[in-house]
């Protein structure tokens, strides 16, 4: 955590400034430490402020300079016990079985710590997310598919379109619900020297973003419904593919509004529409209901399908109020753009270059090599599950099932060259850019 991030933070309980106590750090950065307010103390672990008031044990570990234990504790906080561990917790509450159950729980804790340390020692990108969703009791293969293949999804293209529309300025930009940091990384590519902050309620995600996806980025572990930042701290904000899964949506929108400055702009993308079916969702509401949440400020609503269609034509977000209620009810996902000044809701014409061309160019991770032909390397598109296919259905409209890439284009990708063939592959989304190597697929 550096001084730029420290100056943006505020106690989420009182809104007061924070007093830092540095346990380990150098060159103006805090790697481990404690942020103190008038009512709570918040640990800083591996440079990530943990802005929840219920981590007194982690604060104590940091003060005792037990940094590895503090990091392991934060990793395990997001990962539940297995069924046997939960049964032992129940037995530990019964007087007659408390002693033996407590001893067995200590053994289970030691096993979980060893597993977490192995995942921490694994330097391959996404190792901690694999640990959480594939190798622990928190197993969720659909969630892992989402995070490991997010750069290949239509929702990421919608996010990129929103990123390209962020108005120019010097104030910091906030990525709410940053997850593993891919959107934050894309924001940093677009913003240059402008500060970009990612916040997520999961420490595993914030740490993965910092370590694997957006090296050198600024990340905070915090709550979208009690953002740990000062009033008006940001010039722009994004919340992509997250607000649908937050219960207290009015509070989350109010918090977004609070942290935006007088020229504030924000995009809230990929909101689930109750007028359409979704393979998984959380209390989707109608387009009219989403509109009401943003009625306090100039805004527009547009279907993600429209954003995606324009993106494929090389065009950014449209202007105007967007879809009206009847038309919007046909869309499965919606994006809201809000601005203090209605003049900021402009039509964004042709991209200067494909937003997905930034970073390290590589084959779309949905494609697997199947062999060779006379013309080059053959690839076939493979989706990981029926749920992934249903949730990202628009891909069938634009991603070819099979593609052959010449040896010259393969070498060009390896060398980072933009040849005419590479440009054609970018236009068809067979090639995309990213922060580095794709994560391992399951």
Concise structural overview:
By secondary structure, this protein is an alpha/beta fold. The protein has helices spanning 3-8, 56-63, 67-77, 83-92, 98-121, 127-133, 141-148, 154-164, 182-191, 203-213, 249-259, 287-293, 304-312, 325-328, 386-391, 395-398, 407-415, 420-427; strands at 19-26, 29-36, 41-45, 48-49, 172-176, 196-200, 218-221, 234-240, 260-272, 299-303, 333-339, 360-363, 367-373, 376-381, 402-405, 431-434. The protein is 37% helix and 21% strand.
Spatial arrangement of strands, main beta sheet: 7-6-5-8-9-11-10
Look at the structure and give the mean pLDDT.
93
Strand content: 15-25%
Share in helix: 25-40%
Number of helical segments with 4 or more residues: 18
Verbal overview:
Helix content is about 35%, strand content about 20%. It is of the alpha/beta class. Among the domains are: about 5-55, no CATH class; about 355-435, no CATH class. The strands form 4 sheets. Strands 7-6-5-8-9-11-10 form a 7-stranded mixed sheet, with helices on both faces. It has a 4-stranded antiparallel sheet with strand order 1-2-3-4, with helices on one face. The protein has a 3-stranded antiparallel sheet with strand order 13-14-15. Helix 2 packs antiparallel against helix 3 (about 65-75) and helix 4 runs antiparallel to helix 5. It is globular, with a radius of gyration of 23 Å. Mean pLDDT is about 95; it is low at about 325.
